[in-house]
Structures are given as structure tokens and as C-alpha cells.
Amino acid sequence: MERGVVFGPAGIPIGAPAGGTADGIRYCRKIGLGAMEVEFVHGVNLGQEKAKEAKKAAEESGIRLSCHAPYYINCCAKEKQKIESSVRQIVSTAQAAYWLGAWVIVIHPGHYMSRPAEECRKLVYATFSRCIEEMEALGVKGVALGAELTGKKSAYGSLDEIIDLAEHFGIKQVVPVLDYAHYHARHERLEAKEDYFRILSEVERRLGSEASKNFHCHFSGIQYSDKGERSHLPISSSSPPFAPLAQAWKENGWAGTAICESPLLEKDALEMKRIYDSR
Ligand SMILES: [Zn+2]
Pick from 77, 207, 220, 228: most CB atoms within 10 A? Predict the structure, then answer.
């Protein structure tokens, strides 16, 4: 993997010519971005043929791909049926990722539903284990489950919980996906370089430098209430500010992929790249 941080939008760029995933990928390259997240948030809707076409476009354009699994997954659901459906959604996202040549699929792990975190933890472990087994059985290799830091306090996925998942399974199989906007809404306000430094140092302390030198993360502005996330905002909202994060990355040699989830997608991904390059 090349050094430094590469940037891309969460989904097909707004300005891309009407078409599919492959067109979106080529457009990212054209405007100077280095990554794109393929969104399956409303279901996995990409067949093998289209996926392979997109993989070829990504290889030719040097675009690093990741995928986002459907929103309605709950790996610690109370109902067996919901667990089954979550496993199916995760495994089909992983299958599509494998065809695409994407190395990580981002997952919102689940919801506490008023239960203690400890009770949910065991269920999430069990569901992730099943997904990994089924992926192996299908021959899906080199695709990690990305446990996202979730923005609502009612959702499983605090900073500690996503690092714990990666510790439990090892980072070849499960990686933490930091979402700084969610952290800002859920945990504490991010303002200075030191705030970001603390988060990434914790990742590095518990998972080793392999995790901080090859991270996958999300960034955007965010509107929040005391329950956490409400909606994503453009980077210009500075809530949280991006420049101190770019500075922390540069000073510590931390590298990986940053996916921009602002409503302005590629426009803000380019703005993030500009800020990062100017540090
Ligand atoms: Zn997400």
C-alpha cells in the first residue's frame, strides 16, 4: 500500500456521468481522488459481472475500493430471524466486495435495545464468527469486516467496542472503522490535533501499527443531539474540524483511506485532500 492517506466519496460521485459503479470509479480518478466506497446501504444489488467490470476500472484507475453493508443489520438482535438476515446481508456484501477487489466492508454492528453492552458483545462475537465461517466456505478471501464507530448512543459500536472486536478476531479478519463525525456526536467534541491523536494512539496501542498505518475511516461534519448523531454536514461546518486530523496523520505517519460522507461527497473529498496535501 502506498504511503499517506487517500480520499474518496461514500458512493458514486454526484458529478459522475449517469451509469454504474465502474463509471463512478473512473470519474474519481479523473478528478484526482484515490478511493471510493461502494454503498450497499439499501441492499446488495451488484451482480458478479458488473462487479468484475468495476474491479477492472478500479485497477486501471488505481482507485482503492471498500464497501458499505446494508443499514438494517443487527448482529446482536434478540430475534433469531434478524440474526440470520444480518448474516446473509454481511456475507452477500463480502461476496460483492470479493468480486470488486475491495478489502474491507463497513458494518454498523447492532443495537443495544436497552440491554447491557456485555450481553450484546457476546452476540456480536457469535454473529461475526458465523459470517467469517460462511465467507471462508464461499472462498471469499482477503475481505475484512469493518466494525464502524456508530453515531447513536443506542447503537453498539463505541470506540472501545470496535477496537475490542478487532482484538478478539485479529485485524486480518476485523478492523475498526473510525468515523470521526460519529465520535464527535457520541463520545466527546473533537477540536484539536491532540484529540485526534488520542484516538489513533489508542488504536495503535491496542492493535499495533499495522492498524494505524493502514486504516479505513469515515469523515464528515455532523449535527447531533444528546442522543448522538442526527445528520451529516459538509466539511465547511468544522463540526468536527478536519485540519487538525490531517495534521495528526501527517505528523505521526498514519496512513490509509478516508471516505467522505458529507452531503457534498466528492467535492468535500477533494477539499479534504487539499487540506491534507497543504499540511
Ligand atoms: Zn456507516
Answer: 220
The matching CATH number, chosen from 3.40.50.720, 2.40.50.140, 3.20.20.150, 3.90.180.10, for 5-277 is 3.20.20.150
| Ligand 1 centre distance from Cα of residue 227 (Å) | 17
Instruction: Tell me which residue of 72, 73, 61, 3 sits closest to 35, measured CA to CA.
Output: 61
Give the start-to-end residue ranges of the domains of the chain: 5-277
Centre of ligand 1 to C-alpha 67, Å, is 10
Q: How far is CA 154 from CA 46, 70, 256, in A?
A: 31, 18, 29
What averages of pLDDT result for each successive group of 10 residues across the chain (279 residues)?
85 91 97 98 94 98 98 96 98 98 98 97 98 98 98 97 98 98 96 97 96 96 94 95 97 97 97 97
The angle that helices 159-169 and 117-138 make with each other, rounded to 10 degrees, is 40
The pLDDT, as a whole number, for residue 19 is 78
| Residues making up the chain, counted from first to last | 279
Report the alpha-carbon distance of residue 63 to residue 7 in Å, rounded.
10
How far apart are the CA of 106 and the centre of ligand 1, in A? 6
* Residue 126: φ, ψ to 5°: -65, -40
Q: Hey, how many other C-beta atoms are within 10 angstroms of the C-beta on 78?
A: 11
Residue 7, strand partner residues: 258
Residue 24 is placed in which grid cell? 463512478
Choose among 223, 255, 227, 233: nearest CA to 6.
255
Quote the ligand 1 centre to 259 CA distance (angstroms). 10
Q: What's residue 1's pLDDT?
A: 47
In 10 A of CB 142, how many CB atoms?
11
Prediction pTM value: 0.96
